[in-house]
Amino acid sequence: MEVDQYTNVSSEWSYSGEGSRLPLIDESSALGTQAPKDRLIAVLDQVEMRVERLRRDTVRIEEERDSLLSTLDSVKHSELLSDITECDKEDITRYADRILARAMTVEVAVRTDRDPQQEEALHQVNLYIDQLVMSVHEDAVIAHTRCQTYMNACTSQPDPGSGTDKNFESAILGCTLDDQKRVKKRLQGLLDYFAKLNVTTCS
Fold it and tell me: Which of 56, 89, 167, 183 is deepest in the core (most CB within 10 A)?
């Protein structure tokens, strides 16, 4: 079977840079100095490294998308809207909605293998956070305080000014490590959003 041949450098494959395609094997070429098993393992090592980098890049894109959506939401609910005319407010809203529609066409996801218990734990965590998000416009101060208690459950150095939500802590500890990291970043994004709104926690 003959496959794409790259520049020969002491073997039948080579790597030409960070953004290059991975090499493919030409089974008709000379065996070279490495045993066939070692050569195949070397390629698999490279593939595994690139897969992990792809997962990291996808997670970063997910986080960037969430950040953009949070910013759009903060614009649509900004107090500055009360200082402009209704006509200008409609222009701003239409502009934000147009960007939001474009943003929603981007779908990225990194799948994490979970057992049934971990799936249930993540479901519970998502329910807690979804309820938190829905409560923001009802009482931002209480929502901010609750968000901080959730964040305290995700860190070894909690904010001394607020407590820890034990129910959320129990749920997050049942999640995979990847999910725990992702949830922590999501909560940090919400805390950053509250900071933009100049919302403080309950005393």
Answer: 183
What's the topology of domain 116-201?
Methane Monooxygenase Hydroxylase; Chain G, domain 1 (1.20.58)
For residues 31 and 5, the answer to whether their CB atoms sit within 8 Å is no
What is the pLDDT averaged over residues 91-109?
91
In 3D space, the residue among 12, 16, 46 whose CA is nearest the CA of residue 4 turns out to be: 12
CA 93, CA 55: separation in Å to the nearest integer? Answer: 34
Domain boundaries, the chain: 36-104, 116-201
Give the long-range contacts of residues 49-58, CB within 8 A, separation 24 or more: 50/22, 55/110, 58/108, 58/109, 58/110
**161 three-state secondary structure:** coil
Model confidence over 160-176: pLDDT tens digits?
Answer: 778 899 999 999 999 99
Q: pTM, whole model, 2 decimals?
A: 0.57
| 83: phi then psi, degrees, rounded to nearest 5 | -100, 5
* pLDDT value, residue 4: 38
> For residue 155, which amino acid is it?
T
